Here is the input.
Amino acid sequence: MEEKVKQLIAEYFDEIVAIRRDFHQHPELSEHEERTMTKISEYLTAWGIPNETNIGGHGVVGVIEGKAPAGGSRKYEAVGIRADIDALPIQEAVDCPFKSVNDGVMHACGHDMHAAMLLGSAKILKTLENEFSGTVKLFFQPAEETVGGADQMIQDGCMDNPQVGAVLAFHVAPYLPTGTIEFRRGKMNAATCDLQIEVEGVSCHGAHPEGGVDAIVAASQIVTAFQSILSRNLAPTNAGIITVGQFHAGTKDNIVAGSAHLSGTIRALDPDTMKTLKRRITETAEGIAAGYGAKAHVQLTDGYPSLINSDEVCGEMEALAERMLGKEKMYFMPEPSLGADDFAFFTQRCDGLYMNVGTNSGKEEKPQNIHSEYYHPDEDAMKNGILMEVLGSLQLLEKAE
Here is the structure.
């Protein structure tokens, strides 16, 4: 089976590259992935893979049913593979034949690679359907960069009928050599929460500040005090971030500001840590504002949950990578990231594993970073991504209960 998968990757690879370049040339922003959705559905349909569109927005769910006889009780009756498909509002600066034709929009986060890899995996799994039992579901997910399309797809039932017990996904990693695979057990990405605070004071003439309540002074003290929450309410080994990214106040230089608006982001790897941060932020803001005679109105809106990988699934995929690629192609994240990804909604629901695949050929003229107008990933990286998706999903389906 393993050698056959390698042969099929080689056989289909030119087509997968062409698909990736088409997606790259026609990127679409989050919540506007109409063409991408349609093209994905057309490919799946042409290959005989049943699929549904408009799932969780412009998502696509494909289903491949293995036709081999079941060989006993399995831990997972169905396994999912996820790829996000949306692009970013970035003007591409890479001069290539398949450069974006959509002004100000670019696949600068590699989601064109993710989608193409999953289509390659889909075609191979369909070819092999008589040689495995169980179900593989294909999740082509919209809106990762904005509203969390993963959660919307799950609410639309993508994990049901049959129930998905494990989900795999890849992200491109331009800081790693082409085709290497990076693993992280347990906590990998942070939970997020949006922060909005309105500080209500009393406006007055700047020459007579005693007649008002200065919202800027109160809000400034709030921003400063937030940093002591991190240093005095969290253990030094427990990561958390409070970032105030915007501070808007005042209308004129000789008027004491009657209001101030703060907005920012909260990040934490541990759910209990997030609860602590949210509680202390509210208490601190309201308490400081009251001390200045002002009022603080705090609004906290949860974003993505913590992305926590399954140790068991990670162990399975590490063993697969060592067997198929060799230890020299394996990397391990030394510490989690305080970045976020809505794949966390899948890992919150079932066993899951998010891996990184290296895309740096070492030959590019510009530094390679995601969300950069110069990002130009090495397409050969898709070979190992597809290999791991196909063999990984089959290995999980074979896992005994």
Q: What stands out?
A: Residues 2-25 form the longest helix (24 residues). The mean pLDDT is 97.
